[in-house]
Amino acid sequence: MPSDGALGRPTGLPPPDATPALRGGVLERWRAWRDARLTSPDFRRWASRFALTRPVARHRAARLFDLLSGFVYSQVLAACVELELFDALRQGPVGLDELAARSRLTPEAMRRLLDAAVSIDLLERRGGARYGLGALGAPLVDDEAIAAMVRHHAVLYADLRDPVALLRAGSGDQAHDPRGTAGDWGAGMSRYWPYATGQQPGTLSDEQVAEYSALMSASQPLVGQEVVACAPFDRFHHLLDVGGGEGRFLEQVAQAAPHLQLSLFDLPAVARRAQERLALAGLASRAQAHGGDFLADPLPTGADLISLVRVLFDHPDERCERLLRRVFQALPSGGAVLVAEPMAGVAGTERMGDAYYSFYLLAMGRGRARTADAHRRLLTAAGFRHARSLPTPMPMQASVLLAFKP
């Protein structure tokens, strides 16, 4: 092949630094060709009939139908939870008529629900015209966390009834009530999470915090078990859980690390509920709840480990930076901060971060799911060093970062 210049590069080939651009051009041309094929009705008909492409065509059609039907599937799950079907089947398969009578439904209505639940692997058909737990339904038996989240989603779905209106109401990374610009879009989630509105968090009453505190307490074990599985609690002496709700996470930590002294900081009304719960759990001599606004009040000192469990993603960057600076100030040299929450950009969980939590937080009125790198930047800006990820068994439920104060 003829060469060009002293380096002997073959003529007609792009210089080495043009290779990425060339690759990008080839990829874009392939995507344009693919888009033209997939948007062609004639091509889709051919692909659905040709033996080699038929499985792909059917798989993609099924995926598209699942996107369309997702809300219906979620409502089948909601009905099963509301009627406590999973608990009813925990001892073994049950017949249609017994389940219908138990749920106060007609046999025809119960059969419709049961068949729908079977189709999405919540239940299974068993011998003798009975129904039993399916692969996805069995883990829901006596699972307070999932049941609470399923019931809570009725509020989210109401706010998402017009997603375009919700998008036009404002960004989920802004600290304002979306009702101010688009009617009542977001009203349900804003009511459920009262600190997401413009009201001063420290002034919220016991009644105003009760509903969301109960939900957080019920669902906290899902995230808490991920933290307990990976956090090096043996390196520390005193844990302060900031935004700790009613203390459910501290209860989990207390069992896993009996040497740790425990503290909690949350809004005054929430802290009062936490102190009562911790006392009932037998932790009154070991755990102390403090009330205040973590964006306005100093954090208690004395802890060498501070945890933020499902806290940062509720807030825009500016508030996260302010909170992390307060955490930094409250820690001694060598102390650490532990951040645990569902994060964006985690392999295999992209839909959770970029779709589910993105719209959930938009409806709530503030916050966003961040990648681990985005969290590291926030931690570094606050003064922390050596931020590292701690592997968790179920990263879909929570990813964990640990960073140290020099």
Task: Provide a descriptive summary of the structure in words.
The strands form 3 sheets. This protein has a 7-stranded mixed beta sheet, with helices on both faces. With 406 residues, the chain is α/β, with parallel strands linked by helices. It has 15 helices and 12 strands. It folds into 2 domains: 54-140, Orthogonal Bundle (Arc Repressor Mutant, subunit A), CATH 1.10.10.10; 178-404, Vaccinia Virus protein VP39 (Rossmann fold, 3-Layer(aba) Sandwich), CATH 3.40.50.150.
In short:
It is built from 15 helices and twelve strands.
**Percent strand:** 5-15%
Secondary-structure element order, as H and E?
Answer: EEHHHHEHHEEHHHHEHEHEEHEHHEE
Q: What is the average of the pLDDT values? A: 83
Which regions have little confidence, pLDDT < 50, spanning 5+ residues? 1-14, 172-186
For this structure, what is the CATH class of the largest domain? Alpha Beta
CATH topology of the largest domain: Rossmann fold
What share of residues is helical? 40-55%
Query: Helices and strands: which structural class?
Result: alpha/beta
What is the molecular shape? Answer: globular
CATH superfamily of the largest domain: Vaccinia Virus protein VP39
The number of helical runs is 15
**Could you tell me the radius of gyration in angstroms?**
26 Å
> Distance N terminus to C terminus?
60 Å
Largest sheet, spatial ordering of strands: 8-7-6-9-10-12-11
The CATH architecture of the largest domain = 3-Layer(aba) Sandwich
Q: What's the story with the biggest beta sheet?
A: 7 strands, mixed
